Amino acid sequence: MLNLVSGFGTIKLKRLLRYFGSGRGILKAGCGQLISASGLEESVAEKISSLGPDDLEKELALARDSGVRLVTIYDAGYPENLKTIADPPPVLYVKGDLKEEDKISLAVVGSRYPSFYGLSSAEKFSGALVSLGVTVVSGMARGIDTCAHRAALKNGGRTIAVMGSGFNRIYPEENGSLAEDISKQGCVISEFPMECGPVAYNFPQRNRIISGLSLGVLVVEAADNSGALITADFALEQGREVFAVPGKIDSRLSAGTNKLIREGARLALGIEDILDELNLKPISIPVAMAKTSACPDGLGLDEARIYNLLSSPLSFDEVVQRTACDIPGISEAVLALRIKRLIRELPGKQLARN
């Protein structure tokens, strides 16, 4: 019920809980008591004191109708990583499954209006992460976020989307079907009530959850004023690692990431840079990514993936569709495999093993 009141955050909630002893005690208090106990604005105190059981029942019904469940910070299913931040959300609206394995998560964030380079980098990193058992966390915004989620789904991995609005006001609207797909292969979460709209100040607040769920944040492409940099700032405050993909020095979209690197963010040239820094080892590698007994030793990750795909001949376009690599990366891997005489090109431009 308290979570239904806007302008009432975790820090003030903690203060009120210390004073009144419980959520029920807060709800029974009068406006004057609420104001004197925590310094709440009068308008917020009035909203709290006016809450009743009907407000809660209405919200719970909306959640049930959308297949959403509510998880409080006192529940066993609340994410462990998120509990460690200074101001964890007291309530999460969840559609899908939160799992123990999501403790090994990395946030992938970036520009809403990325370049092809940014999109291909997000796809490559996200695909490789989930293929190694790492959950990809992002904000389901346009651009890099959407690309990261789709790459995770495409590679059969887990992904968590953190929204800056309620479930009945999914934003951007065109990502409604993406949210549904994510909920079936990971989960979508929000701290905002079901009917809460995507107001501007929700998104910086949302960003602390993205970083809080994760062991680190990878900023793929970001201008100087990008919201992704806010997520990076939260990550630093929360003791998480920050990684950045370098970009062209004259590109506006790389100004933010290059600045992060200059200020001490970890340079991310490949997935190994992230795994090494976080001291992670591959957790699980799906069959499509694993080196089978027929796969020669000494191959890079992309080379092994493509070699395993070619159990039967495929066109270059089919290889592109079945991997999360960018086209230049696939071309480089294919050329390396041909130089090593492991694959060949058949008539009709089909690729096959030798």
Would you kindly provide a written description of the structure presented here, covering whatever features stand out?
- This protein has helices at 10-20, 23-28, 31-38, 42-50, 53-65, 80-83, 116-131, 144-154, 176-185, 202-212, 227-237, 255-262, 271-277, 301-309, 316-322, 327-339, and strands spanning 69-72, 91-96, 105-109, 135-138, 159-162, 187-190, 216-219, 241-244, 266-267, 314-315, 343-346, 350-353.
- The protein is an alpha/beta fold and 354 residues long.
- The chain starts with 9 loop residues before the first helix and ends with a strand.
- The protein has three domains: 1-51, DNA polymerase, domain 1, CATH 1.10.150; 96-277, Rossmann fold (3-Layer(aba) Sandwich); 301-353, Winged helix-like DNA-binding domain superfamily/Winged helix DNA-binding domain (Arc Repressor Mutant, subunit A, Orthogonal Bundle).
- The strands form two sheets. The protein has a nine-stranded mixed β-sheet with strand order 1-2-6-5-4-3-7-8-9, sandwiched between helices. Strands 10-12-11 form a three-stranded antiparallel β-sheet.
- The longest helix is centred in the middle third of the chain and has 16 residues, at 116-131.
- Helix 8 (144-154) links the parallel strand 4 (135-138) and strand 5.
- The model is unreliable at 283-293 (pLDDT under 50).
